[in-house]
Amino acid sequence: MIIPNGTIRIISSTGGGMIDGKPQRVTPTISDPIPANISESNRKHGMVSEQTALTQAAYRVLIEPEDAPDVSERDKVEILDKRGVSLGTYEIQSARLLDFVNAIQITT
Question: How many independent structural domains does the chain possess?
Fold first, then answer.
């Protein structure tokens, strides 16, 4: 059992490819909000120019396995804090089952 402090939405892409030589559109599918335990694993601040700042962040997210049993590295994840404010959309770097705590760990 995890202690949720936010939610995530998994964004999967379906479609695409070629049919009869014509390219097909890729359509994103967004899941319902999933309760998650979110922790920031890395944050970098930088400057692009004198007036533009750049912030990069990476997160470690724990979810219950029954909430998203088929999450994979092909998906993206939108992370929302406990107030529902979006922290951004990130590509999933790894998704693995943690047997001893019965949770899926998603790393962005």
Answer: 1
Q: How far is CA 66 from CA 25, 36, 69, 71, 103, in A?
A: 30, 12, 6, 11, 9
pLDDT of the chain along its 108 residues, tens only?
A: 889 999 999 999 888 888 888 888 989 999 999 999 999 888 787 777 777 777 788 999 999 999 988 888 889 999 999 999 999 999 999 999 999 989 999 999
Count of Cβ atoms closer than 10 Å to residue 35 Cβ: 15
Residue 62: which domain range? 1-11+26-44+58-108
DSSP string across 22-83: EE--EEEEEPPPEEEEEEEEEEEEEESSSS-EEEEEEEEEEE-TTT-TT--TT-EEEEEETT
Query: Is residue 52 one of the residues assigned to a domain?
Result: no
Residues 16, 89, 81, 40: is their CA dihedral positive or negative? Answer: positive
106 in any annotated domain: yes
